[in-house]
Amino acid sequence: MPDWLDNLSQRTDQEIVALQQANRAWQKELKLQAAALINNKLAKRIKQEEYIAYRETAKNEANECKRRGSILADELWHRRSEGKRSSVFAV
């Protein structure tokens, strides 16, 4: 899992976008790993117990990736909403 801090308030918009890109890359990597795991299971290169353990880890990582993606999207949405509001009141 890439490094992560839940407090994004000190990050710039550009840093948030970079974090989003890194999270998307991580998501793609997780999908590739899941496909490889299934192929290994189907080819009987790993035992059922190993498969179950790997799937649990993969599931936890996928959930964390999804959580982070939601946090990043929400943060950008709130920042853009705040920017629109402040520009309306600046008139």
Quick recap:
This protein is an all-alpha fold and 91 residues long.
Question: How would you summarize the topology of this molecule?
Answer:
Blueprint: H1 13-42, H2 48-89
Helix pairs in contact: 1-2
The coarse silhouette is elongated
Tell me about the largest β-sheet: none
Instruction: Kindly state the percentage of residues in helix.
Output: over 70%
The low-confidence parts are: none
Report the C-alpha radius of gyration, rounded.
Answer: 19 Å
Description:
By secondary structure, the protein is an all-alpha fold. The chain has one domain. Helix content is 79%, strand content 0%. It has two helices and no strands. α1 packs antiparallel against α2. The protein is elongated, with a radius of gyration of 19 Å. 5% of the residues are buried.
